[in-house]
Q: What sequence folds into this?
C-alpha cells in the first residue's frame, strides 16, 4: 500500500506571511480547498484566492477577541481522524467532520514581542493557544496529515505534491512532524523562560533549552566529532548576528574562539583589540586608535598570534586592516568595516571577515550551560565589573594613577583567561599572559617567560613586564606567586583577596615596595 496521502483540504493560519500567497496559489491550482482565519484569510482574498473562513467551516463564530476560533471538534477532528479507521470515519460522518490534510501554521510572534520589550499584558496576548494545539494534533496524525510550521518548507511540500500527483510521502510527513514538535517545544520554552524572568526565578523547577539550526559544521573540535551551530533567538551582537563578508566556512573552533575574542573586546570603552588563540588571549590592548592597539596587542606574543582570531570594538579601518593582513589570521570580527578595509582583505581568500552590526553589553545578565554526566550545570553569566571605587588598597603604598588604570584593564582581561590566570599589563597593553595552569605561581612564571621571549624576538634589552602591573583571577594562596610577579618587574598587583594567608601576601608586597589592591570579586574561568 502506498504511503502517499493526497492533499485535498488545507488550513492556513500564519503570522509570518512570507511566501504565503505563492504557496496558496499553488494549492489552489492543485485543487486544494483552502480554510483560513483572520488576517491570513484576508491576505489570500486580497490576492484573489477563494478561501473558506474557519468560522463558516465549523459553524461557530470566532469569539473572546479571537482567542477561540480553531479550538473546535471540526478542526481537531479533521486533523486527528485516522484515515481508514472505521470507527473514526463513522464518528466523523455522524458529526459532519471533514478531513484536513494539510496544516500550515506559524505561531504568534511571542519571542519577537518579548525581544522588543513589550509590557506584560502584550506578551501574554502573544501567547498562541490554537496554533500549538493544531500543530500537535496534525503532527500526531502524521500518517495522514502534512504539517508545515516554517516558510522554508513550502517549497519542499510543493515539490513533493508536484512529484506525487498532489500527495506527500510518509517520510516527508514524519520529518515535518518532528520539525513541528521541535517548534512548539521551543515556543513553550521561550514562554516558560519569560515567566521565570518575570517572577525573578533564576533557577525554576524545570528548564528547557531550545535552539534553531544556523549552520551545520564540517566537524567539531576534532575531525572525528560532528557539530552544528544553533542560535537561541537572542539579539546579542556577536557570532550569531554576524554577516560573513568573505572567507571560507567557519569551523567549530573558529566560532568558539571568535566568540571569546569579541566578548573580550567588548569589555572596553576605548578602542581595543583582542587576539585569541584556543579561546585564550595572546594579546590585548586599548589605545587611541585601532592600529596602535593592534600593534601593541600583537607585540605581547607575536608567535602565538599566528593563525589567531582578531576582535575589535570599533569600525575596522583601512590602516588597521593593512597591519592585520601582514600576519596569517583565521578570523577578524568587528562591529562594522569600511569598504576600503574590506578591499584590503579581498586578497586573503582564507581569512574570514565578520561584521556584527554592534557590540554586546558585557554587563548584561545571561546564563551559561555546561553538560555533565546525567545533566547540566547552569550558572548566571560572569558579568561582574570592578571599578576604581570598588578597590581596597591593602599595602602601604597606593597605586599611582597610571598603575590604577592598568590594574583595572588587567583585571578586566583576567575574566576572559582560563584559570589559573595571571596577566601583566603596561600602558594599556598585555605584556605577559599565563593561562590555565594548575599552579598560580606557574602561571606567573610562564607569563614572565613569554614576556622575555617576546622581548628577545623584538630586540629589546629587557622584557616589558619591567614596570608593569599584574592581575590574578583569584587570590594568591601563598606569597610565592606574588614574589614571582615582583621578580618579573611588576610594581602593582590586583587580586580578589580572601586567602587565609592574605596577611602574609600583603607583607611580601610591602617588602617588595608593591602597591596591591583587593577587588572582592573572583573571576575563575574553567
A:
Amino acid at each position: 500500500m502506498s504511503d502517499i496521502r493526497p492533499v485535498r483540504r488545507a488550513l492556513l493560519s500564519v503570522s509570518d506571511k512570507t511566501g504565503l500567497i505563492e504557496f496558496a496559489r499553488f494549492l489552489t491550482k492543485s485543487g486544494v480547498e483552502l480554510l483560513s482565519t483572520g488576517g491570513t484569510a484576508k491576505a489570500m482574498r486580497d490576492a484573489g484566492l477563494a478561501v473558506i473562513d474557519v468560522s463558516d467551516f465549523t459553524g461557530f463564530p470566532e469569539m473572546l477577541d479571537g482567542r477561540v476560533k480553531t479550538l473546535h471538534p471540526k478542526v481537531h477532528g479533521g486533523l486527528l481522524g485516522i484515515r481508514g479507521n472505521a470507527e473514526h470515519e463513522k464518528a466523523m460522518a455522524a458529526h459532519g467532520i471533514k478531513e484536513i490534510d494539510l496544516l500550515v501554521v506559524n505561531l504568534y510572534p511571542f519571542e519577537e514581542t518579548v525581544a522588543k520589550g513589550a509590557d506584560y499584558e502584550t506578551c501574554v496576548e502573544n501567547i498562541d493557544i490554537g496554533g500549538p494545539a493544531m500543530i500537535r494534533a496534525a503532527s500526531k496524525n502524521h500518517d495522514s496529515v502534512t504539517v508545515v510550521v516554517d516558510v522554508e518548507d513550502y517549497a519542499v511540500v510543493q515539490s513533493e505534491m508536484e512529484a506525487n500527483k498532489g500527495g506527500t510521502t510518509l517520510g516527508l510527513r514524519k520529518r515535518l512532524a518532528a520539525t513541528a514538535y521541535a517548534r512548539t517545544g521551543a515556543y513553550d520554552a521561550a514562554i516558560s523562560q519569560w515567566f521565570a524572568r518575570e517572577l525573578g526565578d533564576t533557577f525554576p523547577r524545570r528548564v528547557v533549552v531550545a535552539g534553531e539550526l544556523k549552520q551545520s559544521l564540517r566537524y567539531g573540535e576534532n575531525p572525528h566529532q560532528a557539530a552544528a551551530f544553533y542560535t537561541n533567538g537572542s539579539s546579542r551582537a556577536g557570532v550569531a548576528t554576524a554577516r560573513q563578508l568573505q572567507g571560507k566556512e567557519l569551523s567549530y573552533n573558529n566560532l568558539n574562539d571568535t566568540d571569546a575574542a569579541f566578548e573580550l573586546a567588548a569589555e572596553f570603552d576605548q578602542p581595543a583589540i583582542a587576539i585569541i588563540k584556543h579561546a585564550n588571549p595572546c594579546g590585548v590592548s586599548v589605545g587611541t586608535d585601532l592600529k596602535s592597539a593592534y600593534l601593541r596587542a600583537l607585540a605581547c606574543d607575536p608567535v602565538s598570534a599566528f593563525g589567531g582570531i582578531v576582535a575589535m570594538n570599533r569600525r575596522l579601518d583601512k590602516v588597521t586592516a593593512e597591519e592585520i593582513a601582514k600576519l596569517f589570521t583565521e578570523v577578524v570580527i568587528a562591529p562594522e568595516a569600511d569598504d576600503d578595509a574590506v578591499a584590503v582583505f579581498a586578497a586573503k581568500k582564507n581569512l574570514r571577515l565578520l561584521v556584527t552590526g554592534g557590540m554586546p553589553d558585557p554587563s548584561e545578565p545571561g546564563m551559561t550551560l555546561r553538560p555533565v554526566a546525567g545533566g547540566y550545570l547552569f550558572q548566571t553569566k560572569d558579568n561582574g565589573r570592578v571599578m576604581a571605587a570598588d578597590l581596597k588598597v591593602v599595602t602601604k603604598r597606593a597605586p599611582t594613577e597610571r598603575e590604577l588604570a592598568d590594574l583595572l584593564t588587567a583585571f578586566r582581561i583576567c575574566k576572559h583567561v582560563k584559570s589559573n590566570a595571571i596577566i601583566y599589563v603596561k600602558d594599556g597593553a598585555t605584556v605577559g599572559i599565563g593561562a590555565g595552569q594548575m599552579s598560580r605561581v606557574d602561571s606567573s612564571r610562564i607569563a614572565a617567560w613569554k614576556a622575555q621571549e617576546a622581548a628577545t624576538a623584538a630586540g629589546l634589552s629587557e622584557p616589558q613586564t619591567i614596570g608593569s602591573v599584574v592581575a590574578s583571577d583569584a587570590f594568591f594562596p601563598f606569597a610565592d606567586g606574588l614574589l614571582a610577579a615582583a621578580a618579573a618587574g611588576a610594581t602593582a598587583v590586583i587580586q580578589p583577596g580572601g586567602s587565609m594567608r592574605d596577611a602574609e601576601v600583603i607583607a611580601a608586597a610591602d617588602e617588595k615596595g608593591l602597591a596591591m589592591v583587593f577587588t572582592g570579586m573572583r573571576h575563575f574561568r574553567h
About this structure: The two ends are 57 Å apart (CA to CA). The longest helix spans residues 170-199. The longest strand covers residues 280-286. The chain has 19 helices and 23 strands.
